[in-house]
Amino acid sequence: MEDQSPKRIRCKAAVCRGAGEPLAIEEILVDPPKAYEVRVKIICTSLCHTDISFWQAKVSPVFPRILGHEAYGVVESVGEHVEGFAAGDAVVPTILGQCDHCTSCTSETSNLCDAVPPTMGPGMRRDGTGRFWDEQGNPLHDLLAVSTFSEYTVMDMNQLVKLDPAVPPKLGCLISCGGATGVGAAWRLAMLKPGSSVAIFGLGSVGLAVAQGAKMCGASKIIGVDLNPDKEKFGKAFGVTDFVNPSQLDKNKSVGGVISEMSGGGVDCSFECIGVPSVMAEAFRSTKKGNGKTIVLGLGNDKDEVRLPAQDLLYGKCIMGSSLGGLKPKTHIPILAEKCMNKELELDGLATHEVGMQEINKAFDLLLQGKSLRCIIWMGK
């Protein structure tokens, strides 16, 4: 009887051979999925600042590597013991797992699955080994056990979310990480109430998604902070009501001080979407005493440390980190997709550019030059 089990696939991928080097389009081999794994054909992917951090070796400097973690795809094959997925299903990958059984997954307050814990290093979550090989038979490291800059990739079934096939691929791509992170931070972590005031430091795609999440929750004052004057126009389109450009302030005024004046003593919640320690501290200073909350979404460097005014903590202010905006991916991403489809959320505008895989380095140039929010990369072009 003929063996029907999945075999290795030969396909194209954008491979990063060294820190900061242009990605090379190469023929690679992708292993079949092992137990609890799914092999996915990537339809489109997008470039995130997190990919840039790994590409520049600011975090986990391991090469050669296949980057990418925001994407939309279709299930090609499944390994043993996989439940809930079949060939042809529309899916998006996530950097976090959700098994629905561990202590964290059953908790109301944590979204970091214990069964498939998050990691910055390469290798699949369950066994630490890779699934990619170059034509010479050398291993290619993955990124966050996702690696979507490849026509085919292998992921743990707990890191995949099934979507309604009516959801457009581009939208699915946007809510697999950046869009979900921003909206989730406002909706699930900050739990903003109608009439809330917020400040968003950094109006990239995540910051703009925060603005949409805050608007969805009924926030009345949404202050955007960015050095790029063009972001004022972008921000207003996503729900930002006020804009602060730190470079245009009087030298005697701090950003935190200006925001406190604008909001009558500080905002209810600030969001740091850049990953710079000094900005994290400024975001903390901009919140009000009593119950002001600062949520950090930006990815800093490995050895970054944050210095805060200790006395402010005595006044009830707090600062917290976030992964995927506090969302449980399998539970909440389909809800976000539905909200986008019924226009309760407007995230389509995050995709400012589109290229084919052969032009993937153009996506890096656009993001580094501040000319794009999200560049959609179509893998079949």
UniProtKB/TrEMBL annotation:
It catalyses: a primary alcohol + NAD(+) = an aldehyde + NADH + H(+); a secondary alcohol + NAD(+) = a ketone + NADH + H(+). PROSITE patterns: ADH_ZINC. Pfam families: ADH_N, ADH_zinc_N. GO terms for biological process: formaldehyde catabolic process. One of its GO terms (cellular component) is cytosol. GO terms for molecular function: alcohol dehydrogenase (NAD+) activity; S-(hydroxymethyl)glutathione dehydrogenase [NAD(P)+] activity; zinc ion binding. Its main location: cytoplasm. It is found in: Cytoplasm. The keyword NAD applies. Its cofactor is Zn(2+). Residues 206-326 form the Alcohol dehydrogenase-like C-terminal domain. Keywords: Metal-binding, NAD, Oxidoreductase, Zinc. It comes from the Eukaryota. Residues 36-164 form the Alcohol dehydrogenase-like N-terminal domain. InterPro entries: ADH-like_C (IPR013149), ADH-like_N (IPR013154), ADH_Zn_CS (IPR002328), GroES-like_sf (IPR011032), NAD(P)-bd_dom_sf (IPR036291). Homodimer. Belongs to the zinc-containing alcohol dehydrogenase family. Class-III subfamily. This is Enoyl reductase (ER) domain-containing protein. It comes from Panicum hallii var. hallii.
